[in-house]
Amino acid sequence: MSRLTHSVRSPGGWKRRPNRRASTRPPPQPRLRQSSRHIRFYLLSSLFSRRLLTRLLVFSIIAIVSGATFLTFAIATLSHNLPELGRLIDRSVPISTKIYDREGKVLLYDIHGEAKRTPISLDQIAPLAIKAALVAEDRDFYAHPGFDIRGMLRSLFLDIFAGGPLRGGSTITQQFIKNAVLSREKTLSRKLKELMLAYKIEKRFSKDEILNMYFNEIPYGSTIYGIEAASQTFFGKSAKDLDLVEGAILAALPKAPSRLSPHGNHTDELIARVRYILSGLVEEGYINRKEADSAAKEDPLARVKLKKETILAPHFVLYVRDQLVDKYGEEFIEQGGLKVITTLDWRLQQIAEEEIKKGAEYNEKQYQGKNAALVAQDPKTGQILAMVGSRDYFDETVDGNVNVALRARQPGSSFKPIVYGAAFAKGFTPDTLLWDVVTTFKVEPKDYTPHNYDNKEHGLVSIRQALAGSLNIPAVKTIYLTGIGRVLDLADKLGYTTLTDRSRFGLSLVLGGGEVKLVEHVGAFAAFANDGKHTPQSALLRIEDSSGRVLEEWEAPRVKQVVDPAVVRELISVLSDNAARAFIFGSNSPLILKDRPVAAKTGTTNDWRDGWTLGFTPSLAAGVWAGNNDNAEMKRGSDGVLVAAPIWNAFMSRALNKTPAEQFPPLLPRTIFNPLLRGQGIAQPITVKVNRTNGKIATSSTPRDLIEERVYGAPHSELYYFNKDDLSAPSPAEASTDPSFQNFEDALRRYGEEHNFRGEPPPTEYDTTSTTSTP
Q: Where is there biased composition of kind Low complexity (predicted)?
């Protein structure tokens, strides 16, 4: 019988399949044929593979034996040198770091002093405080043998690829050893000793005993050791009475006690870590989400008790401490026994503190401005001589522990000298004429129309008058003609760090639209006082270690000439010109010193939140900010000349008392090719007394009742005369190409109509009409 097949329809088409009754025996396989050459190759390959595997096996055994031998030798050596566990009881107290004034005579702060410790047992600590510490530092404490392999590998990975000393991965047991037993050198051998000692401690003591020792030993900042001392210092209560928020605060501190101090400058980082710990408590099942959310809504700092310590110039000391920690690390500063000589002039610091306190208290009564800050600097060396961050570091009602000198605030018109400095560098001069009339600027994202502080228009004014009188409209015209980019370039060179995002700033920058730090603002004015040379600011003169070895010492830094001396001297000639500012400030304002020349500038924000005064002589630059830390508005009309200038004047007068009066250097010649920049050649309106009946120039014979004043001329705006892209060029042939040209012209035309500009040349003929007598 023949084998039958039949077709089956499949998704891919028709296929043929065998009949189910057909035989399923596999077909015969073809005979394998190999040549002798293939057989030899196969045998050689097999032999080579066996030899390679044998060699690899031998090499691996040798490597393992060698590594084990080396490791055994290393462990034996390190074990021999391990400190006795008895040192847990008998150990030395860390040496304090001391911060002094510039003479090395006045002790400003003892970072450690005599360590505060109050040993307690584990059952005397609030359970939530214990759990918060475990969440923050070592969640696997009760499971590991004293060290965390995963954490160590993660740390090793970071060390290899990020570089630097060994770090991180420490368990609570290791942290205890690091603080109580071993030295703080960062080496591989010390890390191995730490691991071995951790293992030994875990074998000798129970977990609760180790945790108890940790809570009595760990540093919480300054002179505070152990959770009981920390609880008493920060909250005025025993550790057993700590609640959830307080426990989280104390758990946050050991990571970086100085930086995260509730009394320091980085409280935002402390708050973030407290919230991280609260979330961790939820993750570990110690509290529920509702409890964590409720606690996170609180201000942790409101719980902290401000306790007055023996600390002088506290804001400056913390400013210095932050720099030391950044350079040398938290542990070395807390326990390294350094002697730090700072740049602080104790006499000037005392004067600054007295005048800030007195001025702020007066402002609170008169202007509803509770706080003030001051920074003084030597312009030539860059050394900070005085720093007061608030009227009272320990006054909670004004957030006294916040150093406002380091906070970014809007500077108001006190930023104008930087703008005019850039303008003078471009070619403008104090004699350049500008129209002080309300003008709308065509800029993105929307048109901008500034107004003067007194809401008046002053007509044609020189830049000297505009800057000295702090007129806003000419200032905005100046930054428009100069270019925002040029202004920000100069600001960068002068040391400002808060104006880097250039996309944020427009024409209002000249009126204080950016934010600056008082300490950097003073540094910029100091560069003007130093003939245009910017000197990096410094707060440290010398640092010695515990053995007296000098770690670093101040040397005169390399200064940068950021502004041409000729430009700076013209700027100073305006800022020190009391006659030029008298039409706005009067002739007897607090911007002058009775016995010597001084350059000064005020600033006020539109909403009365910030008042400023900055000024300098050749040897001293100082700046004052006044306002409220919470950004609350002061009383309407509380400008810089009222709330900041009196404090600045009092400080400068006392600081310079009985010192020789210094003169600013004389002006230097500048080559200005365009006479328009010197105020020459610009058509100005002319006021002429005429006979109103015939329009001729009035004479002595013209009847008085026929005489009237008329304003002649058809003046043009600045953009008619200046090519802002090239000031040395002649007047623009097509000034209308500037997007603001028509607005400038329209503003001046409107002003002319309001002030009866006749738009025609003045008369040239004289009136001959005689006065007739009457009987």
A: 765-775
